[in-house]
Protein 1
Amino acid sequence: MTESFESLRALLSGAGYAFVEPPIVHDARVFVELAGEDLRRRLFLTNATDGTELALRPDYTIPVCLAHLASGEARRRADYAYLGPVFRQRNGESGEFLQAGVECLGRTDRAAADADVLALALAAVELLGVKRPNVRIGDSALFAAVLDALDLDGPWRRRLGRTFGDPARLRWLIARASNGTEPAAAMDRKAARRKAQDLLSASGLATIGSRTAEEIADRVIEKSALAAGIGARARVALEKFLAVEGPPVRALKAMRELARKQDLDIGAALDRFEKRIGSFDKRGVDTGKLTFAADFGRRLDYYTGFVFEVHDPKRHDGRQIVGGGRYDRLIALIGHGQAIPAVGFAIWLDRLGGKP
Amino acid sequence: MTAPFILAIPSKGRLMEDSRAAFAKAGLEIVQAGNARSYRGSIAGIADVEIAFLSAPEIAREIGAGAVHAGVTGRDQVEESVADWKEKADFTQPLGFGRCDVVVAVPEAWIDVSAMEDLDDVAADFRPRHGRRLTVATKYINLTRRFFAGHGIADYRIVESLGATEGAPASGAADLIVDITTTGATLRDNGLKILDDGVILRSEAHFVTSLASGWTPAQVGALRSVIGAFGTKAAATRPLFGRLARKKTG
């Protein structure tokens, strides 16, 4: 394995990525704030003597982006590579395991950057000896475009948007949304605000930093939109869209057809998808061997569009050996405030026989 | 000397009194070794039973670790502190005391929130508005994570509470809580309400058998004598004894 690690390093360096080794120990808050309680369960945590909660890095992406932010102008172009241990609590598996990968930051030619990163991931997988890998790709921007085109009301739009990436739950939610919910008791904004304020005062609850009467009243009004539901047309369009799966060129054709029949204005998002597929071709990726799935995405809100995962057909546990994608919102969320183009991948070396 | 059957009994508080009463009613007399401060004891008339007096959370953990053969503790304690409790613990006999519900409670002033899906909306909307995640104060970290994940809620953070959880929203330590309640009165007093579908678990004290410990035939025999005294129906315990028989002794 050590030999193939050396050639993997050579491959990533040769593609212009500079190897970095960010700290292993971090303030835990950054991981928990970004990935939520569900990741926290898998973190290795300890406390500093001042009480700060510390975590061993569960991946490289966040530490690499933190180091990038700490060392200069956030928007600058930078290509980073890494190979080393990451730490997650895993049942029946070692909590310390190796990952390698790249983070490509600041490239505004997104379609070409997506293609470069995917092509590099596939070259790495080939170098590591995986024969005929299965590659799945997805694009949450397409789903977002469908939601926009359907002109859905606020709360349903957001519920559906954030459930993307969990196909079973999303289908359940769409079925539920088509009829709407029980209508809430009618209350105007002013009355709702007064009632919430009275209850807050009566119970002496601290509202500094928590929900205010204003915000509660906003949502009381919003709830009436939930009762109306999204209707049958939206349900049919969403279900048909999410069922699209196949090689990207064929999937694109099916989505254009669907857009025409369902009268959905998603042309701009489909054009971007087409441009990306064109970049894959130019980069020498055999797009006939990729599988696009319209319902494939990640439930982390910093992923903004293109995602991919690579599977080894010889593994039967269904786990990916490479996970990658575009996360333009990550650097904004960890403190810069502005979206910055970012795309990368991580190889699970432990699933390819690599040991720390 | 043969290895004894180790039975853990709550060492303090209401749970200890109720456990002793339940054992007495079943005709089992718990004899404390030495003085009343001792942490070891036995049952009069049943040989090779050793009683260990522990706190209810410790009993749950020791059952999960297989360090005791059985014990009296709350279902909430076992489901919270034993990661794969379905494999490690058998709820052999409910005991009718220590009843409580583990619930999700939010400020009454949240008039827009009556169910978990409302909470999901609030959680998702919270970070953009407040620049931090919605926080949940609780002692029941694992139960909370499982329940929230089951409702598709991801945008929140747990603040571990070490006592008086119901005061967390008032003090600003957290936005909402997951805690135990019997009548709901304490929650109401603190301006909190339980969500319609927010009951995570209805708990009571159980006689819990460890599936993680080693079992010799003599220990299985002692278990039979003890739960026989509680009048647990033989048909109800057949699967348990089947599982114990399939385990390696030791």
Protein 2
Amino acid sequence: MNILHMFLKLLCLAPFEHARQHWVSQRITSIAIVVLGLWFVYQLLFVLTSFDHPEVFAWASDPLNAIILLLLSLYAIYHAELGVQTVLEDYVATERLRTYTLYLLRFLRVMVVVISFVAIGCIIKGGGASPV
Amino acid sequence: MNDKKQPLSPHLSIYRWQITSTLSILHRLSGLVLFLAAFDFAIWLGSIALGGDTYVGVRSFFSTNILVIIWVLVSLSFFYHFLNGIRHLLWDLGKGFEESQVKLTGLLVVFLSVILTALFWYCLLTRFG
């Protein structure tokens, strides 16, 4: 893998994955989401005390929580892209339209990735560890 | 280019109704719902970072009646996709392929996802309601 490819991959702009890698990535991300998703449900039900901003901010700015939230967001949107890609490939018949929708899908994913990174970055920077 | 010749799959309208195909389609539909929910998750994270009026605005928008109905749908999709996804992972390991097993685990997934969604909302509402 050359450095340009690594850089593109980091920005989620690398060429679409080969079918085998697509299959593997979907399984790996699904296992990550099983763990992270259960964590999130647990946090919602038993840890968060209120949905008011100070409480949610204090909770999200705990470094461990912040990292897990970021990972959940990244794995969820990546897994979703892989899944929606399969649906599009199955149901969009014309090659041109299929290519356009796949790139639109990728653009949406990159948007979510950027928003998640910036949001979590700001939350950590503005909060620091909360003594909860 | 044989653009027009590629067959569309799966043909939803011509299959006889079966539990297996129905659950498979529901897996895709719930996945699409969760795809959209992933954007809301990112918006929520962004609003936490921005705070102030943005957080209040997003929170009150997310709490409107129509959105609450959508959250119920999202949570049902989450638990269904979660459980059915585990069923898929077990198939990937080569387990549970007998017809009786496929039907049993399918019914189990539907049953459990409804129970878990109800339980989730019960806990959520008693805590925050």
